[in-house]
User: Fold this.
Amino acid sequence: MKKSIISFLGISSLFVFAKTPHQAATSGESIPQKGFLEHDENSKISPVSVEMEFAGQAVPLSDPSVKRRFAIELTTSKYWRFIATNLTAKSERYFPVIRPILKKYGIPDDFKYIPLMESGFTNKVSVSGAAGPWQLMPETAKHYGLTINSQVDERYNMAFSTEAACKYIWHLHHQLHDWTLTAAAFNKGLDGIKNAVARQKTGSYYNLRLNPQAQFYVFRILAAKAVVENPSKYGYLSRTAHFHYSIPTFKVKINNSISNLSVFAKKHGISMHTLKAYNPWLRSDRLDNPKKNVCYLEIPMLNEISPLHLHSI
Assistant:
């Protein structure tokens, strides 16, 4: 089940067309601050909170090592591409889908930040083969009930992939009995965390020495949580913009095969491109459904789409 490396999207793709503060300082370039959340360079607020929690567990920021790791990720988060573009709109669209499913499985609400941090809610594939918002590996996705074939990859379906991720997270927590260790195991794998705990004789994630990716994984989640929940506290100014994530949609119930998705899309007044933008789990130009399973296709309401919306799809 273990992902061999952290999602390519979770870290590296967030820096496309952007530089870290260290790179910018080296090159002498200024760093652009645009988008929904713009950093206020005049902010005097300390980058590290006095108190912070993850999944109801206090983060021991009184520990200098813990405070340093959180500060590093919080500072780096200011330059994440998804924060500089459409993080707010995507969160508003996808958190309402994710949160009820987390609640259904008894998983703390803070786990909603994992797909945000892993992929920025994008639909690309990491160099290790992980895909979808939760960056699930193929074998993990299939083990927890997702379909992956030439026509469908349910890792890209937000609701389905969240169901699978929750089943995996529940399994991890059943073995580890600690939510912070569970979050770390989502990246490093169950055996990796269990072996580290047994070898180092500590049950606290914050006291474990792990490989760099796992060592900072939870802190990346905490940084995302901190900025999203309190943007002004960390020196961000709200900006208004419109993306297709905020366009109202309706769902069409399907219980048969669709031989031509382009024709289906045209019947609903949209293009194949738009259909797949709203249903990225569709991987072909047809949808075979011999067992007549029920599924739903999301369709944007055309009267709500402006030229700006169309340009962003």
